[in-house]
Design goal:
The complex is a heterodimer of chains A (215) and B (173). By secondary structure, chain A is mostly helical. Chain A has two domains: 135 residues, no CATH class; 43 residues. Chain A contains nine helices and no strands. In chain A, α4 crosses α5, α4 packs across α9 and α8 packs antiparallel against α9. Chain B is flat, with a radius of gyration of 20 Å. The chains are: A mainly alpha (215), B mainly alpha (173). Chains A and B meet through α2, α3, α4, α5 and α6 of A and α3, α4, α5, α6 and α7 of B.
Amino acid sequence: MRRSIIIEGDKSMDSTSTSDSGRKIDKPVGGDQNRPRASLAALFWTFLRIGAFTIGGGYVMVPLIQRDIVERRGWIGKRDFVDILAVSQTAPGPLAVNTSVYVGYTLRGIRGAMAAVVGCILPSIIIILVVAALFDQISSSNYVRAAFAGIRPAVVVLIASAAIKIGRPVVRSRVELALAAAAMILVAFVRVSPALVVTAAAVYGLLVGVGGTKG
Amino acid sequence: MILLNLYLSFAKVGLFTFGGGYAMLPLIESEIIHGRGWLTVREFTDIVAIAEVTPGPIAVNSATFVGYRLAGAVGGIVATLGVVTPSVIIVLALAMLASRFENSDRLARVKSGMRPAVVGLIAAAAFSVARVALVDSKSMMIAAAAAVLVFWAKLDPIVVLAISGLLGMLIFS
């Protein structure tokens, strides 16, 4: 496992250096051409860091990606990130995996998707393999339980701050606010499936169109 | 043979789970416990507890753990590959489709409806975590401290997670 990743990392170095002469081959699949280009190694390490700290549910990844990939690295625009989240929540499978595949693909095509997804799941594979071997000591440790009881309330705040940050450029009219509120209530309190809510909102947008949000 | 079965069973779990996280648990229960008889309910409860206190998606954690129990480290990796394969294929297909119709007017309209809904979904996730996380005055205090760190001090989310974990150790143990 480790070995193949190192080889992949080396290849990415090669493709980065050759791509300077032949630019077109390596241009990003989607998004803004003016944004900084992500190397496969940088993509892998960024998602490794994100994967290692996705504690307390897949949604913790949203503020982590927002900070690392949208704000700090500037690889993806705010609006593009919202579109990626829409697809990630509609497709089956873990949100963290879906999001890393899409972000990786947008930045560096299929190889980017692979680098991102391997980076994202590698920390949990390694940690769970260690945990599985030491299962009893860890599950009965009071310190581990106490630390997690402290992390959970912070996770609420981090996810709420992500909703505000992501919402700011997207929710600007009354109709958009109403759509966001309806989606929140349906999922949080009526327990409708997120995939169904996103699909319904997509159909509504297609038929009616929502306040000037083009592109 | 066990490796192939592990791969296929977890691919099924990955393929039929929408909404991620806890939505995946009933399917793992029916497929892995009742369908295959690979785990007891008791072991499954332990896995969920472990998955909660370790990083990573709960589906990935469960797959690695079950695979390890049945066929060692290789089993863990095979089961994990199984659970992510459907996601990788489906999301790649959707991403290719979306990039092909990048400049389409219809896609712009679809996005105009989806974007506010996604914001609502993230807010909904905050509510569902709050339901299990904000249970007493101590947890409320930690949330308040985290809010100061996030909104006022503007610390990195990873730093906030680490500080609140330490706070938890001081307060709860």
